[in-house]
Amino acid sequence: MDRATNEVWWAEGDTPVHNDSRVTYFVDGEAVLLEMCLCFMRATQSIYLANWGMEPDLLLARGEALLVEQSNADTQAAYCDYLRSQGLQQADIDFWQSNHLTVRNVLAHALSKGIEVKVLLWKANKTFAVYDPQAASDKLIEKGITCLLDTSAEGILHHQIESLHQKVTVVDHSIAFVGGVDPLIEKEEDFDRWDTNAHIFDTPLRRTDSGKTPHGWHDTHAKIEGPAAGDVELNFRQRWNDVIEHQHLDNQLLIPEHPTPAPVESQSIMQIARTVPKHTYHFNKEAIQGITQLYDHALSNVQHFLYIENQYLWLRAYYGVDISLMGQDSPEMKGHLRQIVAALRRGASMSILLPDHPNVGRAFTDAALTILRTEVPEAVTEGRLNAFCLATSQYKMSDGLIHYRPIYVHSKAAIVDDLWSTVGSANLNNRGMRDDTEINVATLDRSLAYGLRLLLQAEHLGLLKHDELYAAARYYRQEQFPDDKRAQAEQAFQHIEAALSDPRQAIQLMSQRAQENLQHYKDRQPLNGHLLPYLTAKEATEQGLNFRQDHGWIEEPEN
């Protein structure tokens, strides 16, 4: 049976399904922020960004890519050759060589070439904000960039923590990005979204002015080309124009409709889907809930396995009180957990990657996992239901001990049977499914889903060194290489494919590695890769670990 045509996968009533658009997945901030930077440099018409948060001084490119701090002439020359191969003009390469590639510097460079640049930022409630929207806006406006603060989630019809959570980029009306990565470093100098697949404990590439390295940050993002990029621009245009009209701003700022981007060759069937609460914008008379529809269909179609990475897994709706027994069940999440239970009872496997120290709602996730384990105990005993978290370790000469830090799992990715996959901004909770403004892309494409799973699992297991995994990811994305480098990248991808091609064996390997690392943690030994079991508060306490509700069990107390 052709599952792509004989099973229902898609959301209805908002955006069309495409077979003429291309989707490319990126893992972690280093890769996707560099790709965005390249796209900004190549732009000839327009750049639109809509973000939950932004730090205009965030560096989009670092390490060998930050040529202004690169003293080795041969390295500089080689990287300039790479930039030429990526389609950059000499003037852009000169700019790349002589400037720090911060968000606002790169956008201002585009603006200086006559490119239309517009930025839409959520005006976050000061009580809950992790960045200063006005300060970010001021930094952009200083460079001549048009920036609006979106207040659409404010008012008596909205709960006080409703957020405009999309992370949207559109370049030249034909290339778009959606996913989990905001160009942001939070205001306490922690949680820098730029991170490598190595998630190093302490590195000058991420060190702040105070001398500390922010917690590691694991994320996923997607690039969309072709007519579906027009659906992402439609989303941006609707939101932007709504803000112009609602705030009674100059009508000259309105964005007109542009022609649909030209089709591109693709083996994917895909769709852009949104969550937009009722009363948030004037363009939607009723709530838009396309993302929960996507999950509804995909979870019902699980035959063999479900792989999830998410910041949360909540049944109960969270509205600012971090007590899992309070509040009502989210009807969308109640349905999704029921679908997961049904899949497990059919004999399918599920593995989920979660942060040990989410910003809120640790007990909410514990409660949802406990429901799954209670409803299908045989899946636990048979090793078909696994939950993991991530951490990094480092030896410190100051005390001669191994130290540990959790890696923040912010990725919102899901894979069903190496066939269907989604990446976006929506978390598995009431907010992602109903109460916040979100955007995801979903695809039916075996090679795309399969490759994404391999790269994610290889990273968590530590199967390859940073440079090797980075090259394997570029090979998966079908990027151009010099002949000698291409052979090395292909070999790296084949290495992880040999280890992980069977999804059940891959999960067994992850489970084994997580348990080994738990023992390493207890014995104060270095971790092998980043995997640890996700332990509920009860489980961590029973094992004698130092669990704290606000920090999880991995984080070490500050001296």
CATH fold-level label of the domain at 21-254 and 262-269:
Endonuclease, Chain A
Mean pLDDT: 95
Shape: globular
CATH class label of the domain at 21-254 and 262-269: Alpha Beta
> Count of DSSP helices?
17
Radius of gyration equals 22 Å
Distance between the termini: 60 Å
Q: In CATH terms, what is the architecture of the domain at 21-254 and 262-269?
A: 2-Layer Sandwich
Low-confidence stretches: none
Largest sheet: 12 strands, mixed
Question: Helical residue percent?
Answer: 25-40%
Provide the structure class: alpha+beta
Strand fraction = 15-25%
Q: Please name the fourth-level CATH homologous superfamily of the domain at 21-254 and 262-269.
A: Endonuclease Chain A
Beta strand count:
19
Structural summary, described in words:
This protein has 559 residues and is an alpha+beta fold. It has a domain at 21-254 and 262-269: Endonuclease Chain A (Endonuclease, Chain A, 2-Layer Sandwich), CATH 3.30.870.10. Helices cover 36% and strands 19% of the residues. It is built from 17 helices and 19 strands. It has helices at residues 3-6, 29-42, 73-85, 90-98, 103-112, 133-142, 227-246, 290-300, 331-345, 362-375, 377-381, 430-435, 446-461, 466-476, 483-500, 503-523, 537-542; strands at residues 17-18, 22-27, 46-51, 116-122, 146-150, 167-171, 175-179, 216-218, 220-225, 269-276, 288-289, 305-309, 349-353, 385-396, 401-409, 413-416, 420-424, 438-444, 531-533. α6 (133-142) links the parallel β4 (116-122) and β5. The protein starts with a helix and ends in a 17-residue tail after the last helix. The relative contact order is 0.13. This is Phospholipase.
